[in-house]
Amino acid sequence: MATKQSLRTPTQPRDLNAPFFDLREVAWILNLSVDTVRRRIRAGLLPCSQAVEGGTITVSRADLDAYHEATRLVAFPGRRRSTTRRPARAAA
């Protein structure tokens, strides 16, 4: 008996170079839940398109790349910490 997978379960895309992805594939690529992807779309952080009202929501490869670039973390170019430990101060 075949089981039906939930619409909230992220799934691996068949082709990572495809021009468009559905919500479940986007969730798998970004390592997020489908609900989080929906919230990011609703907040305007992740552009999407929908061919017909109530139809499948898709995200283009270009929009996905732009979102990834805008939200990636970069190292703060601040003071570097030493990896060696200093000896403890003597008690006075």
Strand and helix map with partners:
Layout: E1 20-22, H1 23-30, H2 34-42, E2 49-50, E3 57-60, H3 61-71
Antiparallel strand pairs: 1-3, 2-3
Helix pairs in contact: 1-2
Features:
3-stranded antiparallel beta sheet; Helix-turn-helix domain-containing protein; 92 residues; 3 helices; Multidrug-efflux Transporter Regulator, Chain: A, Domain 2; elongated; alpha+beta
Count every beta strand, where a strand is a DSSP E run of 2 or more residues.
3
Radius of gyration: 21 Å
Sketch the major β-sheet.
3 strands, antiparallel
Query: Can you list the strand order of the major beta sheet?
Result: 1-3-2
Backbone shape: elongated
What would the average pLDDT be, to the nearest integer?
A: 84
- Return the CATH class of the domain at 20-71: Mainly Alpha
What is the string of helix and strand elements? Answer: EHHEEH
Explain the overall architecture.
The longest helix is centred in the C-terminal third of the chain and has 11 residues, at 61-71. The termini are far apart. Strands 1-3-2 form a 3-stranded antiparallel sheet. The mean pLDDT is 84. Helix 1 (23-30) packs across helix 2. The relative contact order is 0.14. A hairpin with a 6-residue loop joins strand 2 (49-50) and strand 3. It has helices spanning 23-30, 34-42, 61-71; strands spanning 20-22, 49-50, 57-60. The chain is of the alpha+beta class and 92 residues long. The chain has 3 helices and 3 strands; from the N terminus they run βααββα. It is elongated. The chain has a domain at 20-71: Multidrug-efflux Transporter Regulator, Chain: A, Domain 2 (Orthogonal Bundle), CATH 1.10.1660.
